[in-house]
């Protein structure tokens, strides 16, 4: 299987268990691997034969502006399902990181993988 990757995508969203934490958007960092058959686009050199990663990034930004989440797990699942359903991916692996959320901590988060 071929993979389209998006690395260290910084997006703003409202995320956190306490309600006060969801009052203001915070930056999260996403690493995404999208499984897809790229053989057709490798031959055609046509964007219509692949997943347009610019459109994926825009759609993720829109989705995270529209929704707030308590858990990084729910946010990760939401993005996985969006990519699987809207872009026809075969599978999606996503890492969601909340940087510097606690003193002395570079980041925390989850990694999940989903398949159609």
Protein described:
The protein has 116 residues and is α+β, with helices and mostly antiparallel strands. The chain has one domain: GTP cyclohydrolase I, C-terminal domain/NADPH-dependent 7-cyano-7-deazaguanine reductase, N-terminal domain (GTP Cyclohydrolase I, domain 2), CATH 3.30.1130.10. Helices cover 31% and strands 39% of the residues. It has helices at 39-44, 53-66, 72-87; strands spanning 2-15, 26-36, 68-69, 91-99, 107-115. Strands 3-1-2-4-5 form a five-stranded mixed β-sheet. Strand 4 (91-99) and strand 5 form a beta hairpin. Helix 2 (53-66) crosses helix 3 (72-87). The protein is elongated. The relative contact order is 0.22.
Helix content range of the residues, please?
Answer: 25-40%
CATH architecture: 2-Layer Sandwich
CATH 4th-level superfamily:
GTP cyclohydrolase I, C-terminal domain/NADPH-dependent 7-cyano-7-deazaguanine reductase, N-terminal domain
- Strand proportion: 35-45%
The first-to-last residue Cα distance is 14 Å
Rg on CA atoms, Å: 15 Å
Report the total helices.
3
Annotated CATH topology: GTP Cyclohydrolase I, domain 2
Largest sheet geometry = 5 strands, mixed
* Strand line-up of the largest beta sheet: 3-1-2-4-5
Unreliable runs: none
> What's the helix-strand series?
EEHHEHEE
What does the overall shape look like? Answer: elongated
Number of domains: 1
Count the strands? 5
Going by helix content, strand content and strand pairing, the class is: alpha+beta
